[in-house]
Structure formats: structure tokens, C-alpha cells
Design a protein that fits this description.
8-stranded mixed β-sheet; alpha+beta; 12 helices; 5-stranded antiparallel β-sheet; 22 strands
Length: 497
């Protein structure tokens, strides 16, 4: 029996934020996630935009937590040692109708407490971003908008929680939750990393359950209450362009939003690429993270964005993600009235990444009001910064390489990722164990060749450091093994290539 004060279901950006905030208290906390890595569900396919907070309707949790989370992000990024840039954002009006909507967005942003908002004329906007559409009639400028690496934000918050005592049980799929007088019984299956025959059932006991399960949060919510919730997976497809296109715009550029979202955005990424997307297509399939010809055509359609001359010939990859769109029009956060101790953190769609730091604080406050825990006197709030070599001055790079030559051995040439960085990400708490985990934490395999040169070398490093054979190295966990035996039979067996 695994007994905890709090069990969190979901190790995405919101679950990890809640875990980090709860680790400030003297509580027994664990996080359960069905995937092989932190942030491998909804959070992995995220635009990395830290929204200023002008879009959500005043009075909603989306509005409140977006603005609070955006304000927290710079200090949090410094504490966690992750890159963050406050590059600002523009919402561009391309028609007279858009201009009227732009003024509405401005008033909404002011009501939400967004600082520094300005309405620009078309000429002012084009001077700020020369590659805006020729039809630009004006723009709403939000200087507090920013960009962050969503993978590093999620994994760093999880790492902070872990070093402060929170247990993470990955490859653990929750099947059922039963309420009792003394709390909850959580029934789950733990998957063996390599062998299905070794999968086993496991039981957790908790005084409080926190439901941060992304597109599956309605499943657990509906187990515990008659007040049913529906979450629809809303697929967004993106194109990622090479770093050679990264300076096409300096700010995040949106078109005026519609009922389905903020439209096709164009933005630099924190790693220097250019991101274009997403689409918005509602699905029944909660695992439907496939791209389509129709979706990518919509991303690339003339006039889809507010930016002209996007060098789409520089696209290096495309991907899709699912947003958990709830049927209540707002984030669903709070303790169920008819199921005390069960706390929803559900329907966290955009601006969920931006709001995640504030969501963590809000949920931790709810838990504190229920359990009245003592403070964790040994809490460590600052992580050792990850060593992003390409972001450091040459003098610092040389000093690091002198101490550890592995940082001078470039493995991923496209993204300039060294062996030292890969080793570091494997051996940090909750370190990488799959190829995708290395990619998300370091940026290796995310350059122009998409791993064409570095993939085998990274596999060798993982095999060596984890002490497992190459055939056991996976892309994203069991069932995604990359090798299937040898390509050459031994000569004494009469084999050939």
C-alpha cells in the first residue's frame, strides 16, 4: 500500500506546478502519470507563448490566473534556471471589423490588469514588425507577452518538486478512484518499462486527490460527481521553421481571435526557431496527435496569419497537440462540493501554460485550507541552472569545457547540443530515459536534420549511461523501440547484410 497525503494525477505543466507548490509544505505527495516522461501529454505540444492576459473575459479564472502567472514567470524562470524572454506580442487588425475588436481586447486587457497595453496604428505596427501583412490597419501591443520553453518549464518544476520530497510514479495508469470515509483509494496499473509480462496492479491511498489529467480529466471528475464535465480534445497543428527563419518576426504575432482560439500565430521560439500555427479542430480521439494534409495546408494558407512572406520553405518539422477544451467556458479548478478532498484542475486549455505558476499557488492554497500542514523548513527553491552552452559567452564555454571536455563534444550539430548537456539531462533528478525526453530537455534532434546525424550517437549515450542495451532504447517509452535486432547476421551463421 502506498499512502500519501496528496496524490496528483498528471505530470504535465499544471500537475508539476501544483507539485512544486505543495513541496513547500510538510506533506507526503506523489504524482502519477501514465506516460514515460514528465510533460508527455497535453503539455508536450505547446506553442511556448506566455500570454499577457488581454484575451480572457474579465472575472474568469482564465483572466485572473493568466495575468498572475505571466507576472510570476520571469522570477520563476530565474529560480528554475530556464530560459525566458519577454519579447512582447501583437494582435493585428486586418479589417475595420478587426479594429473594433482590437479596441474591445484593449478594454478587456485593462480590466484584467494587463500592464503597458497600447493600440498602435498600422504604420506604427509595421515599423515595429516590418513583415506584418500589407493590410495591417492597427495592432494591440502587449509588452508583457513572452516566450518560454514549455518542456523545460514543466520538467524544471517537476525537478524542483522532486528534490523537495515529491515522489513521481511514471508509467502508472489510474483506472479507478473510490471515495471512503478516510480519503481515497486509487487503483492503477504500473507498466514495466520494457516487459508487459511484468506490469502489475498498484493501490494508492490519499487524503486528497488532485485531478490534473489533461484531456482525461473529465474521466476522473465524472467518477466522483453527478455534475458531469465534458472535455473535448481540440487539436492544433503547427509548423516549425529552422533558425534561419527565426528573425522573421521578433514578437509573437496573432490575428484577431475567433470562437475557436487565437488563430494562426507566428512567433520566434526561445531556441531561435520560428513557429507557425496552430489550427483548431475538435476531435473524439483523446490520442489524436497526428498531423493532416488539410491541417498543415490551413497553417500555410495565404492570409492565415497576419505575417507576410513567411519562408515556409524553411519548415523542418510539423507536429500536433491536443488542448483540453471544457464545456464550461473556463478553467475548472476547485474542490468538488459533493466529494470533499477531490480537487479538479481541469479544462486547462490556453492560456494554461501562462497561468500554470498561479494555478499551482491557487491549488496549494486549497490544500492548505483543508489539511493545515506545516511548512517544509528544508525547501529548496532554486535549481542549479541547466548548462545551455550555446547561450553562454565564449569565455564561460571555454571554462566549462576545460573542467569537463564532454561539453566541447558537439553531438547535435544543428542545435549545437554537446555530450555534456545530454549527460546532464540524463543524470539530473527525473532525468531523461528516452530519445524524446533528451530532445525536449536539450533541443537535440530539433534542428534542420531532425536527428539524421545525432540520433544514433544519442542512443549510444543513453545505452551507456542507463546500462541498457541499444535495443531497449525507445523514442517515448515501451512500444516505441527504435532497433529490432541487428541488421547484419554473423558470418559464421552464413548471414549477410
Amino acid at each position: 500500500m502506498n499512502e500519501y497525503d496528496v496524490v496528483i494525477i498528471g505530470a504535465g505543466v499544471t500537475g508539476s506546478s501544483v507539485a512544486m507548490q505543495l513541496s513547500r509544505y510538510d506533506l507526503r505527495v506523489c504524482v502519477l502519470d501514465r506516460n514515460s516522461d514528465i510533460g508527455e501529454g497535453t503539455s508536450k505540444a505547446n506553442s511556448g507563448i506566455v500570454h499577457a492576459g488581454y484575451d480572457a473575459m474579465p472575472g474568469t479564472l482564465k483572466a485572473k490566473l493568466n495575468v498572475e502567472g505571466s507576472k510570476m514567470m520571469p522570477a520563476l524562470a530565474r529560480q528554475l534556471g530556464i530560459p525566458f524572454m519577454r519579447n512582447g506580442s501583437l494582435v493585428v487588425a486586418l479589417s475595420d471589423e478587426d479594429v473594433a475588436h482590437m479596441n474591445e481586447l484593449y478594454e478587456r486587457g485593462v480590466a484584467n490588469g494587463v500592464e503597458g497595453l497600447r493600440i498602435l496604428t498600422g504604420e506604427e505596427a509595421l515599423r515595429m514588425e516590418p513583415n506584418l501583412s500589407d493590410d495591417t490597419k492597427g495592432a494591440l501591443f502587449a509588452p508583457t507577452g513572452g516566450i518560454v520553453c514549455p518542456f523545460r518549464l514543466t520538467s524544471a518544476m517537476a525537478e524542483c518538486a522532486n528534490i523537495n520530497g515529491v515522489d513521481f510514479h511514471l508509467l502508472t495508469d489510474v483506472n479507478n478512484i473510490v471515495r471512503s470515509d478516510d480519503g481515497f483509494t486509487i487503483e492503477a496499473v504500473h507498466f514495466d518499462e520494457f516487459d508487459p509480462a511484468k506490469d502489475n496492479s498498484v493501490i494508492y491511498k490519499a487524503r486528497i486527490v488532485i485531478n490534473a489529467a489533461g484531456v482525461y480529466a473529465d474521466r476522473f471528475h465524472n467518477m466522483m460527481t453527478d455534475d458531469k464535465l465534458t472535455i473535448t480534445p481540440r487539436k492544433g497543428e503547427y509548423c516549425l521553421l529552422d533558425v534561419t527563419a527565426g528573425h522573421h518576426v521578433g514578437r509573437t504575432v496573432f490575428r484577431m481571435p475567433s470562437a475557436l482560439g487565437k488563430g494562426i500565430l507566428v512567433s520566434p521560439t526561445i531556441h531561435g526557431n520560428l513557429l507557425v500555427g496552430p489550427t483548431a479542430t475538435d476531435l473524439d480521439d483523446k490520442e489524436g496527435v497526428f498531423t493532416t494534409a488539410e491541417g498543415l495546408a490551413a497553417v500555410n494558407a495565404p492570409g492565415a496569419s497576419a505575417v507576410r512572406n513567411i519562408p515556409m520553405n524553411e519548415v523542418i518539422t510539423s507536429f500536433a497537440g491536443l488542448r483540453p477544451h471544457g464545456d464550461r467556458g473556463d478553467f475548472v479548478i476547485g474542490e468538488l462540493p459533493d466529494c470533499p478532498g477531490f480537487i479538479d484542475v481541469a479544462a486547462i486549455e490556453s492560456p494554461g501554460l501562462s497561468a500554470s505558476p498561479a494555478i499551482g499557488v491557487m491549488v496549494a492554497d486549497i490544500v492548505e485550507d483543508i489539511l493545515h500542514p506545516d511548512i517544509n523548513e528544508d525547501y529548496v527553491g532554486e535549481l542549479k541552472p541547466f548548462t545551455y552552452m550555446k547561450l553562454l559567452p565564449k569565455e564561460e564555454q571555454y571554462a566549462i569545457i576545460e573542467k569537463n571536455p564532454a561539453y566541447g563534444n558537439i553531438i547535435c550539430r544543428c542545435a549545437s547540443v554537446s555530450e555534456g548537456e545530454i549527460l546532464e539531462t540524463i543524470h539530473r533528478p527525473l532525468g531523461a530515459r528516452t530519445m524524446d525526453a533528451v530532445k525536449r530537455r536539450t533541443g537535440a534532434n530539433m534542428g534542420r536534420c531532425q536527428g539524421g546525424f545525432c540520433y544514433p550517437k544519442i542512443m549510444e549515450i543513453l545505452s551507456r549511461e542507463l546500462g541498457i542495451p541499444m535495443e531497449k532504447i525507445t523514442k517515448k517509452g515501451r512500444g516505441s523501440e527504435i532497433l529490432d535486432g541487428s541488421t547484419m547476421l554473423k558470418q559464421d551463421q552464413g548471414g549477410s547484410i
